[in-house]
Each structure stands twice: as structure tokens, then as C-alpha cells.
Specification:
about 400 residues, alpha/beta, 3-stranded antiparallel β-sheet, globular, binds pyridoxal-5'-phosphate
């Protein structure tokens, strides 16, 4: 029997009923401009203010340390370019990050490199986790910023954020984290975790798309992103996206209220699927088995082409993702999988399943049942698989 299994929640999530319910009045009743002085405007102003307080409470920061943005990419760009501009004035033009950041970070660092900044990208080793000694050794007198993602979007590995933050504090270096995959999925406390700046995005935790936030510690005088009106304390002008902001706050509140329960449920689902799929010959898990996002399954199957696997899975109702991205006509394997040391031909056979709390044990069984015959079929047609078998004397 065909099932419908959406398992691509790391790409985006379905909006929750709670978030949607919170948004609707913002279209129908609270439609004023938060900058207007009349009551309809003031209702919208209060809705945005309440959302800011709610998010700040969850992250454990002050409401005026939250800046609403259009999403994770904007928050990453703003944080990194902003600090770069700020610190360049003090002669600090060195930035430390990792090899497997999201492109919103990596491409921003490339942009800065072209403008005279020096970038050090830390190794993430086979399990997708940096070594703290590498970080300590990389910090210099002129280091302006350390930016390390909280959890990786492809392989799910979670970094020792609190320790990284502590090292940055000791050395007087600012610390930004792209926490887009972690917020709403892991317990986060910017104070305890020694985080100076943090990016988050609404649509990765059942909020609406096109809205996010940047947490920025009050002591950092971040340069303005958009000139114009006085929104976001003069730093990002433009009339607020009131429904999206309100929806994002409601989604985050819901995720954080159910955090422990969801983490337990998802990690059980994750481990069940990983154990099930590991029975496939010549398969491997990408990333750390325990320091891992609760809902992330990332695996490679030798002699399989990731894109084909996805298409076949879609035909049986399973929506997943592969690490590889098609760049300008040539198939480049994912930079994340290459960063953890996988050879090109192995990285091509990648599969990412990312679960949310709506996924069920029955769906996990269905995945475990559907994937192996598809892999077998793809291998039967694969010249690469044939070659590998010959090399190993199995043919
Ligand atoms: C999705 C994602 C982003 C980008 O967020 P958008 O809101 O889609 O711009 C950035 N970083 C990570 C780790 C992501 O998973």
C-alpha cells in the first residue's frame, strides 16, 4: 500500500495549525501598520512586541536583542557582514568558520574574502564536529569573528556550542552561530551557551516562510541593514511582516513547549530508520551517531546515484533529499559530504531523511521496507556498482 511520507523537514516544514491560527487575525483584524498611532496600528504594534518578548524569553535574551528579518539567509548575511564592517575599523580582518557551513554563511565569507578579509575554515572531521584545539589554535590577534553552525542541515551533527562560545569569550572574539536547524529542535539558551549572535528561521520549525530573526547582544553596535524607517530600532527599515512574525513566535512557543517530548520521539524514529537502512550492504551513516539532530537521518549507499534514489522514493510517496546539488549543469557532490572526507563517488549516493513530530513509526517501517529494493534496482543498472563489485571480487 502506498503511504505519504514527507521526510524533508530540514528543507522546510509544514506550517502548524497553532501558527496559522495565530496569523489569521493579523490579516483580518490586526492589519494596521505597527508605526501608526491609531488603535488598529497599535494592535499590530502590540502583536509584534509580544512576539519579540516570546522569542526572547525562549532564547533567554532581552526583547531588544531580537531583530526580525526575512529568514536565516538574511540573518547570517547581516551578522557576518555587519561584524566584519565593525571590526575592520579596529584592524581585525580575520574570520574563523567551518568547511561545512550553509551557503548563506560560506558565500558571505567568500564575499568578504574578495574584499580583503582572511578566512580560516576549520576541519569537521569524519563525524562532522570540529576539534576545540583547532579553534584555539586558529584564533589570532586580528580575529574579528567566529561563526560556527549549531547543527548541520545535511548530516545533522551538533557542535559543542557552549565550549566554542567559552573559548571565544576567553579570547575576546565575537561568536555567531547559524542555529537555523537547531532552534525549536534542541534546547538553546544564548546566555548559558555563550552566544553573541544567533540566526534562526521560522519555516524550519513549522512557522511561515520568509521570516526569521537575528539575536544580537546589546553591546554589539551592528551596522544598519536597511536604511529608511525606524523599524527594528532603526537598523532594518520596512513595515513589519506582522502575520509572519506572529506566526513564527507561535510556532516557536509550540516547539519549545513540546521540546523534550519531540526530541525523544524523533530520536527513536531516527535510530529505528538508521538501524533499518544500515542492513543494506555497502551503506554508511554520515555524521555523529549521538551528537546529532533528533530528526536527521543521513546515509550513503555505494553504487547509487542520489538523484535517482530520490525520484524513485517520490514515486512511492516518500519525499526526501540528497546531499548533492546540481551546480551549473555539472553534478557536484555536496560540500558537506566532501568536508567529512567522503570520496566523490560515495558522496553521490547520499540520502537525507529529516523527520518532524508528525512522522510515525508506521512511516519509519514503510521507509525501511521501500528503500532496499530501490537501491537494489539502481545498483543493478549501475556501471559504478558493477565496477566496485569486480574490484572486490564479488562479480
Ligand atoms: C535553511 C537554512 C538556512 C537558510 O534559511 P532561510 O530562512 O531559508 O533563508 C540557513 N542555514 C541553515 C543551516 C539552514 O538550514
Amino acid at each position: 500500500m502506498l503511504m505519504k511520507v514527507y521526510a524533508d523537514n530540514a528543507a522546510t516544514t509544514k506550517i502548524s495549525k497553532t501558527a496559522l491560527a495565530a496569523m489569521m487575525p493579523c490579516y483580518e483584524e490586526i492589519y494596521g501598520n505597527p508605526s501608526s498611532l491609531h488603535s488598529v496600528g497599535q494592535d499590530a504594534f502590540h502583536a509584534v512586541r509580544d512576539a519579540r518578548v516570546q522569542i526572547a524569553d525562549i532564547l533567554n535574551c532581552a526583547p531588544d536583542e531580537i531583530y526580525f528579518t526575512s529568514g536565516g539567509s538574511e540573518s547570517d548575511n547581516w551578522a557576518i557582514k555587519g561584524v566584519a564592517e565593525l571590526m575592520a575599523k579596529k584592524g581585525k580582518k580575520h574570520i574563523i568558520s567551518t568547511k561545512f557551513e550553509h551557503h548563506a554563511v560560506l558565500h558571505t565569507l567568500k564575499y568578504l574574502e574578495r574584499r580583503g578579509f582572511e578566512i580560516t575554515l576549520l576541519d569537521v572531521y569524519e563525524n562532522g564536529i570540529i576539534h576545540l584545539d583547532d579553534l584555539k589554535n586558529a584564533i589570532r590577534e586580528d580575529t574579528a569573528l567566529v561563526t560556527v553552525m549549531y547543527a548541520n542541515n545535511e548530516i545533522g551533527s551538533v557542535q559543542p556550542i557552549r565550549e566554542i562560545g567559552a573559548i571565544c569569550r576567553e579570547n575576546g572574539v565575537l561568536f555567531h552561530t547559524d542555529a537555523v536547524q537547531a532552534v525549536g529542535h534542541l534546547p538553546i539558551d544564548v546566555e548559558a551557551d555563550n552566544i553573541d549572535m544567533l540566526s534562526l528561521s521560522g519555516h524550519k520549525f513549522h512557522g511561515p516562510k520568509g521570516v526569521g530573526a537575528l539575536y544580537c547582544k546589546k553591546s554589539i553596535r551592528l551596522p544598519n541593514l536597511i536604511e529608511g524607517g525606524a523599524q527594528e530600532r532603526n537598523r532594518r527599515a520596512g513595515t513589519e511582516n506582522v502575520p509572519a512574525i506572529v506566526g513564527m513566535a507561535a510556532a516557536l512557543k509550540e516547539a519549545s513547549d513540546n521540546l523534550e517530548e519531540n526530541m525523544k520521539k524523533l530520536s527513536a524514529l531516527r535510530d529505528k530508520v538508521i538501524d533499518g537502512l544500515l542492513k543494506i550492504p555497502c551503506s554508511r551513516v554520515n555524521g555523529d551517531r549521538t551528537q546529532r539532530l533528533p530528526g536527521n537521518v543521513s546515509m550513503c549507499f555505494e553504487g547509487v546515484e542520489g538523484e535517482s534514489l530520490l525520484l524513485y522514493l517520490d514515486m512511492v510517496g516518500i519525499q526526501a533529499s540528497s546531499g548533492s546539488a546540481c551546480t551549473s549543469g555539472s553534478l557536484d557532490p555536496s560540500h558537506v559530504l566532501l568536508a567529512i572526507g567522503l570520496p566523490h563517488e560515495v558522496a553521490h549516493g547520499s540520502l537525507r531523511l529529516s523527520f518532524c513530530e508528525e512522522n510515525t513509526a508506521e512511516q519509519a517501517d514503510y521507509i525501511i521496507e521501500q528503500v532496499p529494493p530501490i537501491i537494489e534496482r539502481l545498483r543493478d543498472m549501475s556501471p559504478l556498482w558493477e565496477r566496485l563489485q569486480k574490484e572486490r571480487g564479488n562479480a
